[in-house]
Structure prediction request, 308 residues.
Amino acid sequence: MHGGAWDMPDESVDACKEGCARSLAAGWSFLQNGGSALDAVQAAVIVLEDDPVFDAGLGSHLTLDGYVECDAIVMDGSTLRAGAVAALRHIRNPIRLARQVLERCPHMMLVGEGAERFAAQQGLPLCGPEELITDAERDAWLKCRNSAHAAAHHRGHEQGTVGAVALDRNGRLFAATSTGGTCCKLPGRVGDSPLIGCGCYADAEAGGVSCTGYGEAIMKVVLAKAAADFLRRPSGLDPNPSPAILPKLSTSNTASLAARQAVGILAARTHATGGLILLDRDGEPGFAYNTPRMAYGYVAQGKFVVGV
Prediction:
C-alpha cells in the first residue's frame, strides 16, 4: 500500500507511518484468513480514506470553489475489468463505490451526479459535502483564495494519492487507488487516479500497480500500464536504472527494477514527480519514487514493513 509520494514534512512522518501500518493491518487481516484480495485492497484503502493525514476521502484537498471532489478505482487482474468513479462530493469512502461499479454496473466508470445516484441505488450512504472538509484544508483554501495559491499554505501541496495492491491465496490480483486530487483544482478536474493504466492497473499475467504523484504527467506516460508492461517483459529491464529514482536498490528483483524503470520514464519524459507500488504476478513487491518521500508499506513473509 502507499499513502502518497510528496515533499512530506518531518512533522507528518510519524502520522503517515501509523496510518500505513493500520492500512496494512486492515488488508492483511483478510488475506491471512483466506479472504479475497478485493476485500483486502478495499479495507486497506478505507483506512487511508478515513485518515485526514492522507489526500483521499476525509481530508482531501479542496477545489477552487471550496469543495472536495474525490476519485477512485479498483481493478481485477483476472478479468481486466475495473470500477472507477470521479468527481464525487457526497461519498465518504469512494473506494466502496468503485467496487460497486466493478461488481454491479455494466459500465466501468461513472462520474459526478450520475455516480452518486448509482451509489444511492446500491444502498451506499451519501454525506454532506462539508463532512469531508477538515479545518486544515479549509484554512489552506482560505489562504489561497485571499492571497495567492501557494505551496506554503498546505501541509502537502503535492500530497499524493493512496492505493493498495493484493494477491490472495487463490491467485486473484487486485489493485486500487483513491484520491482527493490537487489543491485548488478546477471543479470537475479528473487526474490519473481513476483512469485504467494511468493511476492503477492490474493484469494477472503481469502484476498490479497503484501510482501517486502529478496526475497530468502520469497520464502522459500511462504510468501504471508502463510498469505492468515491464513486469510482462522483464528482459527489457535496465539493470542499472537511473540513480535519481528512489529508493536505492538493495535487490535486483524484477519487481523493483520495473518500478524504478517506470518512474524513470515519468521523470525523463515529463520532468515531473511521482511514485508507484506494485506486486508482480508471483506476489513480489516493488516500489519507486522521485519525490523527497513516499509513504508506503508491504507485508514480507508475514512481517510488516513501513517507511517514508
